[in-house]
Amino acid sequence: MLVDFNFRIIFEYLPLFLTGLRSTCFIAVVSIALALATGIIACACRISGVKAIKYPAIAYIEIIRSTPLLVQIYFLYFGLPTLGLRVPELQTGILALMLNSGAYIAEIIRAGITSVDDGQLEAGTASGLNYFQRMRFIILPQALGVTIPPLLGQNIVLVKDSALLSLISVMELTRCGQTMTSERFMPAEAFFTVAFFYMCIYFCLKALADWSQRKLIFREAY
Amino acid sequence: MIEFKNVNKWFGKLHVLNNIDLKISKGEVLVICGPSGSGKSTLIRCINRLEKIQKGEIIVNNTPVHDKHTNLTKLRAQIGFVFQQFHLYPHMTVLQNVMLAPVNVKKLAKSEAEKIALEKLEQVGLTEKSSAYPAQLSGGQQQRVAIARGLTMSPEIMLFDEPTSALDPEMIGEVLDVMVNLVSEGMTMCVVTHEMGFAKKVAHRVLFMDEGKIVETGTPDDFFDNPKTDRAAEFISKILTH
Amino acid sequence: MMGFYFSRLVEIYPFFLKGLWMTSKIAFISLVTCTLIGFVLGVIRSSNNIILKRIVGVYVAFVRGTPFVVQIFIIFFILPDWGLQLDAFPAALLAMAIMGSAFICEIVAGGINSIHKGQWEAATSSGLTMIQQLRLVIVPQAMKVILPPLVGQYVLLIKDTSVVSVIGVMELTRVGWVTVVRIPEGLMVFSLVGALYFSISYPLILLSNYLERKMAI
Prior knowledge:
The complex is a heterotrimer of chains A (about 220), B (about 240) and C (about 220).
Chain A: H1 7-47, H2 51-65, H3 69-82, H4 89-115, H5 118-126, H6 131-161, H7 173-184, H8 187-216
Helix pairs in contact in A: 1-2, 1-4, 1-7, 1-8, 2-4, 3-4, 4-6, 5-6, 6-8, 7-8
Chain B: E1 2-11, E2 14-24, E3 29-33, H1 40-47, E4 55-60, E5 63-64, H2 72-77, E6 79-82, H3 94-104, H4 110-123, H5 139-151, E7 157-161, H6 169-184, E8 188-192, H7 196-202, E9 205-210, E10 213-218, H8 220-225, H9 230-241
Parallel strand pairs in B: 3-8, 3-9, 6-7, 7-8
Antiparallel strand pairs in B: 1-2, 1-4, 4-5, 9-10
Helix pairs in contact in B: 3-4, 3-5, 4-5, 5-6
Chain C: H1 2-11, H2 13-45, H3 50-65, H4 68-81, H5 88-113, H6 117-125, H7 130-160, H8 172-182, H9 186-216
Helix pairs in contact in C: 2-5, 2-8, 3-5, 4-5, 5-7, 6-7, 7-9, 8-9
């Protein structure tokens, strides 16, 4: 079993894996930034009272959350060309990750905002603060404390989700494993190495999430 | 100073305020009591429009509170409100809690707002806690900070919604002391409370509510010693044996 | 042209229903297995046995730290190397079981840990055995914390079944992939696939939301 694990071949392929790792990190960073923007906008629409933007936001969030990411990726990958749009694989993949995580992030932010006690809003209202001041000084700072840990959790999910981009031939970490498997047929070496790199990213992000959990959750006032 | 004219409010089918007519004059201290669900909290929450009313009119300092065109910010600056559950902002220090409104509503300079905030904190005896966070304070101290926060806009009226009900017995005294001091400064106050001692000592008038109606009003001594209605008598005997 | 493809799509609609049936089958079997294994592991993870706890911890970290598609590749390509030949379908079930159990284990452990120590102590002083304590006192209370995220996890697991298409299991996503080669209307084909997934997962999402509201009281 693991006795004949071939480390030499891993070293031979190390440069390939490192490019894959870099590519995965790049995809993750770009997608999370875009997803955050999408999520904030979707959440703002979702909690607004204007029906014309509220219902489209609900539809977007619910459709994304109840269909698999892989189907969303294929939808864009096979669907955009039928609309006459030639988008390269990488961009298609990032678009899919952005739309997917954006919906989850919108819900995370909404949960953070609704978690702030109603009394806090009333206290702000009674002091004469207007809507934006209540949001800015009272709701958002407290919502941030409960939002950051699950946001970092979503970040972890996104890194793992980006592995699915290998199925539309985006050259990232998992795709490197597939490449090595098809060239040398050493799946154990290939995929355990891939798994190892994902674990490294996971532990870094998890340490960050745990740290933020301790740091950012405000103690209850009563 | 505060006037209720035929005020009615419903929560769904529940008639929480039923034809309320009431006048509170400047410098008056009014204590409102009654069983839970009688509408007493709703009554004072309507004064600064934390609750809307469906019928009637409330006038504070010649301003119709429930008029569309009323400048609520200006109105609320004249009214301090203290909640049963304090509702201090947990992510801000005591001083920041008290300074928030003067800086952002009155647009005072930070230094000036800080001066006022410290004055108010001194008034409630908590200057030394100004850099603490709410979670580091006892319930009584938190409520005193909340009172300082209510005072910081130099309001003409203070509203208290059961300010001592969420406190342990040994902390009630310190909060009531602060309130008694306010009375001696001539503040107009509406206090929802069952603290008979406080009512007897400083209230000018006691108002007893039940099922959304004002059942009885009178001076504290009259009310507590010779209640006119059976419902009030029953209520008083309950809080006495409690 | 659209119309032509649409009628082709209607023609091969039974093919999609077969895919839906396969997806439901995988989903149902894995939800049951994952729940059973997940609860056992969750109890171990919240227990006082440090060695067992650590072992479960390592397993959970591995599953949570790596993408599901990589786990499937490991199971499907590497187990044969080690002398365990698996068809695509059992390999898919195995992968789902390994992945899902780890997530459910964490949810269960979180629920059990949320119960106040005093409840254990009270149950111990009443003379209940360990199993009785769990069954009669701890788990019924922990269910309140466990149930909403558990149903949420079910939705995620159902959606994750789409990934087993990569080893050739003819479920819904694979059906879509095979179809799109013959009927090049990607939007139409994958809208249909998406709609079918939606019809399974959305009711569960609503259930999860409902439970969350109900349990919050």
